[in-house]
Amino acid sequence: MTTSPPLPLITIGFSSHRLEALPPAREEMAGHDAIVLEDPPEPDFPALLAGELSAADYLEDKDVEFPEFSRRQLEMIKDLHNRGKTILQVEPYQERLIQIHELLAAGSCREEVEPQPAFREVYAAESQASRALLNFYTAAHAAPFPRVVAAVTEFARADAARFRLRDRLRAQALAPLSARYPRLYVEAGYIHLYLLKALKELDQDGRRLRPAFLLADLSRAAIGRPRPLGPGDLLTLHYIFGAAIAPAQETLLAARSLIHIKLLDKEEKAPGPDPAPHLADEIQAYRLSGALSLEDCAALYPQVRTLAPAEAVALVNSFLPARTC
Fold first, then answer.
1. What is the SS3 assignment for 21?
2. Residue 51 CA, distance from chain mean position
3. Alpha helices for the chain (secondary structure H)
4. Structural domain spans, the chain
5. Cβ pair 196, 11 in contact under 8 A
6. Is-contact 307 262, C-beta < 8 A?
7. Cα–Cα distance between 129 and 23 in angstroms, integer?
8. What order do you get walking across the sheet with 86-89 strand by strand?
9. What does the pLDDT look like over 110-162, one tens digit per residue?
């Protein structure tokens, strides 16, 4: 009796670009044949993998949000490559967006670039999201609080459309890879949950899809969830999946997101006595913002706008007990 070979496996590793995510990411990656990074292809990436370019030199001309994470991840990736793992960069949306910017910078006019089939959807999604973000920034400085909240929902809807397109394009590029690599690991940010749905919709030949939240054990121990989704991400995910949401809940999530974002420390933190300092920071913000009413957010927003994260946390911590008195 012959045994059928196992179905190809795609593991989607959901995490943030934080140092604390690297050890569980490496553990997951080590059990796969190929690793797909959430990056558009870079021309000097093969030289990095070949050892002809250091991580520092590779990053020198790149604008990265978390430089220490990026450096250490590249060192980890190089080591995995040396151990026989195939490393790929697959992010079609960002790749096309870069091509659009390069064409415009080279002198092509919008009317030449926008209608091209390869660029049309990306151009439209990016333009809509950029307009909504600009509207939010304009409202955030002077508009009444209800208008600021409305601008948040407007941007979240445009951002959701952009994420849906981004995940759909990436799924289309990833699906054929499972025929070449029986065990494929895909790096993905937490907001890219639609990628799982998009891959399922393309599953004609049969494959196993396995979501892996890299810090789920620590998160579940603290809050009973695999990830402390902030109110802004939760609102965006409602829009991404077209889930029903009551207007009052929609408004509350948007209002809470204005406070939540001010509670998060933007600086990179290395694990120490706390193995996941950024997760702890996110859980703190999740708990504080989740306790706020719409009226609380309206009262706090003018005060937290100009505060550093630690100051904003102290303010909300003092505000909540006083409010209940």
1. helix
2. 29
3. 22-29, 45-49, 55-59, 67-82, 92-105, 110-113, 120-142, 145-174, 177-180, 194-201, 216-223, 231-241, 247-263, 277-290, 294-304, 309-324
4. 9-94+166-214, 227-324
5. no
6. yes
7. 34
8. 86-89, 34-37, 183-189, 9-15, 208-213
9. 999 999 999 999 999 999 999 999 999 999 988 999 999 999 999 999 999 99
Burial readout 182-215 (b: 16 or more C-beta within 10 A, e: otherwise): ebbbbbbebbbbbbbebbeeebeeebebebbbbb
What is the DSSP annotation of 98-115?
A: HHHHHHHHTT--HHHHTT
Residue 284 has which token pair?
């703190």
Nearest to 194 by CA among 167, 213, 225, 176: 167
Instruction: Please give the Cα distance from 230 to 257 (Å, whole number).
Output: 7
Q: Residue 231 is encoded by which pair of tokens?
A: 């109110």
**Residue carrying structure tokens 């080591």:** 79
Residue 137: how many other CB atoms lie within 10 Å? 11
CATH class (in words) of the domain with range 9-94+166-214 = alpha beta
Give per-residue pLDDT as tens, 5-54: 678 899 999 999 999 999 999 999 999 999 999 999 999 999 999 999 99
Alpha carbons 249 and 198: distance in angstroms, whole number: 27
In 3D space, the residue among 184, 174, 171 whose CA is nearest the CA of residue 29 turns out to be 184
Tokens of 133: 């973000």
